[in-house]
Amino acid sequence: MGPMGPMGPMGSTGATGATGPAGSPGSPGPAGSMGPQGVPGAQGAGGGVTGEAAAQFAGFTQTTYTGVAGGREAMNARCDAAFADSHLCHASEYLLANAATVPPTNGAWIDASAGIEGFNANVTVSNSLGSVEMGRYTGFHELTNCANWTLGSYSSGATVGITVTPAQMTSTQCTQSRALACCSTPTSAGFRGFTSATISGARPGGRAEMHQTCGAQFAGSHMCHAAEYYRAAPTITPPVAGAWIDASAYLRTSGGVDVTNNAAVETLGRYAGFHELTNCGGWTLASYSSGAAYGLKVTSAGVASNVCTAALAVACCD
Length: 318
What we know:
Elements: E1 57-60, H1 72-82, E2 87-88, H2 91-96, E3 108-109, E4 113-117, E5 122-126, E6 135-137, H3 146-149, E7 153-154, E8 157-158, E9 160-164, E10 169-173, E11 179-183, E12 191-194, H4 206-217, E13 222-223, H5 226-231, E14 243-244, E15 248-251, E16 257-260, E17 263-264, E18 269-270, H6 280-283, E19 287-288, E20 291-292, E21 294-299, E22 302-307, E23 313-317
Parallel strand pairs: 3-11, 14-23
Antiparallel strand pairs: 1-11, 2-11, 3-9, 4-5, 4-6, 6-17, 7-8, 9-10, 12-23, 13-23, 14-21, 15-16, 15-18, 19-20, 21-22
């Protein structure tokens, strides 16, 4: 055999063959060091703590206002404009929040707080107790909350509201300009709005029909009861004529149910008793043997009575 000749040029690359089966996994490497602890997320209204037990302070407004705002809803709206999703604090809520921001020297407007004396069935107003058993006081009072933040004077003289100062809660004439104390406490109550449709308080379908009227405009909503409405801290001023709303009630320690529309305490629920002068007889009556039937409505000045034959909007919550 003669000697091997020189190697010829490399031929072109052939087609890629099929992928072979995966090999068995190798042994795991050593564990890495633990990373830093993350920041816990805020508790939401869906399942976390809400209400006074989760009290949060947002701040004091830089702008000052008189206590004559046109209603609590307007005060809430001013806070919301300064600190998103905030509202005017009530005293107990503010105290529970343990705010570390020093109040203005001349004070900031704040709502009064109220609790329920279960045995005596009284609503007790106090501005010196930070307790989850206290809620917002919503009664129309010329010497406590500027008549629900609507009046500068009345027949006996100047109206007065509560302000928080570095030292204490104190009284201030409502015509004075002060900052607002604003809280952003999460709540399970939600206000949706007032219906554009107006209806009488005497319905063939009763309370269920009132709920239907809300649901037709605000999906999933129902007619508010008073404590629910105020715990939702609405920022929309009620219609001038008012809007139908259910009463709220609580159980007395000594037994029985008592009705109140002057406090927004978390333990209050909807009053569903048949009453011709409170809820148009379960929202079914225009009149009864003693005369006209009455139901409750919410106005910028608070909760008031109205004859059931009137056509009003409905206050809707979710």
